[in-house]
Specification:
alpha+beta; Immunoglobulin-like; ten-stranded mixed beta sheet; four-stranded antiparallel beta sheet; 10 helices; 31% helix; binds zinc ion
């Protein structure tokens, strides 16, 4: 081999090496960058050498500081709910980097949802249709308004103060014109209310109806309300701006009306609690599946104006509203009540299933007592918490406090069943598998003196206890009268 051939051979080798090196580099570089959209959720997929950096932004300056999202991951796909991003055009740009940035790619959120969910414009969330309908109804009840200017602004003095502090309430950046501020002070006086929007003389706390804005006169910075949201500062404006966040659980979904800044409110743990209550109560009822739940959890400020009462209701279609009070109120006082309320309302959702036969029980008080009894049996609330002493109660029901409230009658019957040892898994199983008869309890009152009432009640609880309960009714419910 002459010298020229050797040189040519070396050059060939060098060229092949270079080509290999280039190819190798091409393999190393980020490739196959793609995205898919589901409502507000974007999923990016790509190939390359981890770790990967991801940058999503509203313009094309990929890799520079800022933007909506920076993430580092070792996985070849990355999903993110972009509903937090305030971006009216809904168009986003992104790049993925391993040792170099990919080309800049764009996606546009589609406003379409999978799995029969429906898109909600205000929150950009995908919701079950019945939840979306209910939330629209709640917005109507709260008189939510995007473009209503020049609302009247009443003036209210707190603790005799004179330093102005403006207080505005919003939901998803729209004005809330009906709400209930829960004061933690008694010294409240209305100074001026030109449009008569303050209903501050009602027995059930104070409703505002017709404006989202109040000028409070306060003596000093302080908490004049139930929530930490409402720390008023002299000569400043406090914007109470709620939004709705969704948390998907195993058996259902929860929708929380919270402030955007509420990062410490632990929705993950609450949703896990809902899942475990749903599982145990469906099991106690002997149902073959864990029934789904859809929770709308509202603070007192909005919930009572939107739903009435205490804000805790079974709303039909597996939906329930639970009042969490507000973040501070929840964390300091309301956790146990909140858990008990869910455990109670979820039983109502189970009771509504036609295959249980419970549609034949024609009066609400029995269903109420049963809902509490199951929540208590599973350890989610106590008799004390529902106004009945944990200790043994005397025979009869008319001696109980609040005898005019029909809830008390149902609770009393189940408390007697419990303390006489009849409540167990078999009892609840049979109660949830009634043969389709009717049980007309509408003539019952707290004295239980109506014989038609007690015979129907006897039929119902004898079936559930799988034994004749005549003597129980006579000795425990009627006190041998
Ligand atoms: Zn109830």
């Amino acid at each position: 081999m002459d010298i020229l051939n050797v040189v040519m051979q070396k050059i060939k080798l060098l060229i092949i090496s270079l080509i290999l090196l280039l190819n190798f580099n091409l393999v190393l570089a980020i490739s196959n960058v793609q995205h898919s959209i589901d409502g507000n959720k974007v999923t990016l997929t790509y190939q390359g050498i981890p770790p990967f950096w991801i940058n999503v932004r509203g313009e094309t300056n990929i890799g520079q500081n800022g933007g909506y999202l920076w993430a580092k991951t070792y996985a070849n796909s990355f999903s993110y709910d972009m509903s937090f991003a305030i971006n009216p055009s809904k168009k986003f740009y992104y790049g993925v980097k391993d040792n170099q940035w990919s080309n800049t790619v764009s996606f546009t959120l589609s406003n379409t949802c999978s799995n029969n969910l429906s898109f909600d414009e205000d929150t950009q969330l995908c919701m079950e249709q019945q939840v979306l309908n209910k939330i629209q109804d709640i917005r109507t009840k709260l008189k939510v308004c995007g473009s209503c200017d020049n609302l009247s602004q009443p003036i209210v003095s707190l603790n005799g103060g004179d330093k102005a502090s403006i207080y505005n309430v919003y939901l998803d950046n729209k004005k809330v014109r009906k709400f209930m501020p829960v004061f933690s002070i008694d010294d409240i006086s209305v100074i001026d209310d030109p449009q008569n929007v303050l209903r501050f003389n009602l027995s059930y706390n104070q409703m505002v109806d017709g404006t989202n804005s109040i000028k409070f006169l306060i003596p000093a910075q302080g908490e004049y309300f139930q929530n930490r949201y409402d720390v008023l500062t002299p000569y400043q404006t406090t914007n109470i701006d709620y939004t709705i966040v969704k948390k998907q659980g195993i058996y259902g979904a929860s929708y929380f009306f919270i402030l955007k800044k509420d990062t410490i409110f632990d929705i993950n743990n609450i949703t896990a609690m809902f899942d475990s209550i749903a599982q145990s109560e469906s099991g106690l009822a002997g149902l073959s599946n864990v029934e789904p739940y859809y929770v709308i959890a509202m603070p007192t400020l909005l919930g009572i104006a939107a739903l009435g009462g205490e804000g805790n209701f079974y709303l039909g279609n597996q939906m329930m509203s639970i009042n969490f009070g507000g973040e501070k109120y929840y964390n300091e006082y309301n956790k146990d009540v909140f858990k008990g309320e869910f455990a109670h309302e979820y039983v109502h959702s189970l009771q509504s299933k036609p295959e249980t036969g419970l549609y034949g029980v024609n009066d609400g008080f029995f269903m109420e007592g049963m809902a509490d009894a199951m929540a208590i049996y599973e350890g989610y609330r106590t008799w004390n918490e529902v106004g009945i002493y944990d200790e043994q109660i005397e025979p009869g029901c008319s001696q109980l406090t609040n005898p005019q409230v029909m809830h008390t009658l149902g609770r009393c019957i189940f408390k007697h069943l419990n303390q006489s040892g009849y409540l167990d898994e078999n009892f609840f199983y049979r109660l949830f598998h009634l043969p389709g008869d009717s049980y007309n309890l509408y003539t019952c009152d707290i004295n239980l003196q109506d014989t038609y009432c007690t015979s129907e009640l006897n039929k119902l609880i004898s079936y559930s206890a799988n034994q004749n309960m005549t003597s129980f009714i006579r000795e425990e419910l009627l006190g041998n009268i």
